[in-house]
Amino acid sequence: MLLLKNCYLIASFDKADSEFCDSDILIEGNKIAKIGADLQASGAEVIDCSGCVAIPGMVNCHHHFFQILTRNLPGAQDAKLFDWLRYLYPIWARLDAEAILSSTMLATAELLKTGCTLSSDHSYLYPRGFEGDIMELQFEAARVTGIRFCPTRGSMTLGESDGGLPPDTVVQDTAEVLADMARVIDRFHNPEPLSLRRVALAPCSPFSVDPELMIETARLAREKSVVLHTHLAETLDEEEFCRGKYGKRPLELMADWGWIGRDVYFAHGIYFTGEELELLAQTGTGICHCPSSNMRLGSGIARVREMLDRRVRVGLGVDGSASNDSSDMLGEVRNALLLQRVRYGSTAMTAREALSIAIRGGTDLLGYPELGSIEAGKGADIAVFDVSNIGHAGGLADPLASLVFAGFDHTAKFTIVGGEVVVREGRLCRIDEAELIARANTASARLLH
Fold this sequence. Notes:
This protein has helices at residues 81-92, 97-113, 134-145, 174-188, 211-224, 236-246, 250-256, 274-283, 291-296, 304-309, 329-344, 351-366, 399-405, 433-448, and strands spanning 2-11, 19-28, 31-36, 45-48, 52-56, 58-60, 116-119, 122-123, 148-149, 152-155, 200-203, 228-232, 264-268, 286-289, 314-316, 382-386, 414-417, 420-424, 427-428.
């Protein structure tokens, strides 16, 4: 048992958006048992949360963990998406088992330390000659750090010789991909409500896979009852590619290929028309907003305010660490709010809306209704942030909003996943941080040199 005592504020994110001052949270096993003042529990570990705001753990719906070893490369700092990819594909083609392990541990560590308790990962690159099982390596790394993990078995099948963007050395054939998708679902996917391990299916994008794979992936996902994911409408280059190769806009292709519905969500979604936004809303198809990456690559601003007004399902993602250069989940919430205000004005998004996208929006997209709020009976995934420090001083008239508007350090004081403390006093509990940093830097240097 855990007893989080004396929380300055508990933001439940329940249906009523209840908030509790000077209250406690009792956790029994992997679930929240009770919220209230002056709770007592014999035998429980007591954690003092004085001066802290507790929120449900945030959810990262789109990432590319392997890219964390190639962040901040001078040759890719100022490139738009297609040029950026062409520069990095040959480097990523040299990924090995150690690179996958260390990058996954580093990315999940950074997410946990910034209040993310559940993450997906879009691992779409399978270099020719790779020795090992990429999904097995990722699940092992996530087990080590302690995050709740729902990665995707990604894929690319349309290489340069077939008119695609990626080099042939990092693509697979359709039959190989489909067989391995079925294998990883059967081996790793656990559909239980509070499962720590799930699998989704995610062909990379319309410019890197063939139509047969898209159609058959959708069929397989529905047969196995797993979520579908891909990049879509991220850049005008992508739209031009789809029009040139298929004679249709990206979302039209998705509809033709069966990629519409509540079991589907797309990363980015910048270049949708009003009619396409209506289609997303009517079909329940979701969008993962990635504001930092979109700004970093100069891709554009997604129409998130309009999506929310139309009741399109929206979650949040930090995206690849080579197009964001960070896995800072709370920082992504701040950028989501600010970027919408750049486009729509000062009332475009509130701090609570931005946090809700990162919490409830994410659990909705990944299919975890048992998470996303601090309520009795819900899963015990909680992030606790200290607002008694210098970065929040003078900003406590609204402690919850201060997480978004104030503060210069986004490190959680405590992060709890399934009732287990995995970040304590801002430090990872399951892994030595200095060793992880050295390991990742070594893997990065080997990959680059």
